Amino acid sequence: MNETRHRVLDALADGPVSGPTLADELDISRSAVWKHVEALRDEGFEVRSDDAGYVLDSVPEFGASAVEYGLDAPFSVEYHDSIPSTNARARDLAAEGASDVVVLADEQTGGRGRLDRDWHSPSGGVWLSVLFRPDVPMAHAPVFTLASAVAVTRAAREAGVEASIKWPNDVLVRRGEEERKLVGILTEMEGEADRVSWVVVGIGVNANVDPADLPDEANPTSLSAERGEPVDRRLFTQRLLEEFDSLRQDTEQVVEAWREYATTLGQQVRVETPGGPIEGEAVDIQFPGALVIETESGTEVVSAGDCEHLRPVTE
Ligand code: BT5
Description:
Layout: H1 3-13, H2 19-26, H3 30-42, E1 46-50, E2 53-58, H4 64-68, E3 76-83, H5 86-95, E4 101-108, E5 126-132, H6 142-158, E6 163-166, E7 170-175, E8 178-192, E9 195-205, H7 223-227, H8 233-249, H9 252-261, E10 268-273, E11 276-286, E12 290-295, E13 298-302, E14 306-309
Parallel strand pairs: 3-4
Antiparallel strand pairs: 1-2, 4-5, 5-9, 6-7, 7-8, 8-9, 10-11, 10-14, 11-12, 12-13
Helix pairs in contact: 1-3, 2-3, 6-8, 6-9
């Protein structure tokens, strides 16, 4: 959303305000005011005109301006009703030199997981990618995956869903022994060893989605299924982005926050690594994101791999 449209929206929110007053305040023509108001109406903002002037009656449920409106983080939002993959789009924007952009979609038709797996993204989800350019070495980039897991966990908990984090990149809801996948995260990046050029953090949240429409084998769940009613996707997305923005600027606090929400620590795990499987008890996480595992033959520090929580052996 451009700067003037932001200011029109802010003025309407404090309204009623007349067209001529707005034109004076923003130093634009009356017809420019009218065009901005029409554009906001096209995006779903309900703007009433009465004797006292324009009044903002309601904000749309989702969309670029809806998420930017009242957002306390310096991201601009590009919204798509449907797109193949927000990560692919964010990578294109990275190649064009953009930064601090969030690509957001209601539906993805070619969503991707890790290792080229499919990510099902029906309408009603929060499918988004954050493109930014942190000033850190490449080796530190995994901390942003942890940061996004913490951010989405906090936003989910505020929405009343007891989410927790499974190393390295899943956010899930536990019910007894059962774990249901709520969120997937896919981080991509480019740069030289000593400096990251860009990072794209792709976050897929099953928000207002029926788990029956998602692949069974993943044991999926959604915010709406856990809550028993739909979540306000606009507020949820804003909280997620605000948390992520504060964590990315203070990566020291990320590992500590991650420990607080982790379900992996203290569990028996099996991690598939390029060098073969590693089994043992997950005892800690280390900056920027490695898992520390006590195995029968000693301590292993694993930086990447698919992780399975093993059921404790009962005698
Ligand atoms: C992930 O991969 O969990 C990362 C998913 C990242 C998706 C976001 S959405 C926005 C952005 N744009 C993209 O194109 N991607 C990112 P992985 O750990 O590999 O898990 C993939 C597996 O999860 C699949 O093989 C399925 O079994 C399962 N799965 C697929 N869709 C799911 C869903 N909506 N909910 C739960 N599980 C799902």
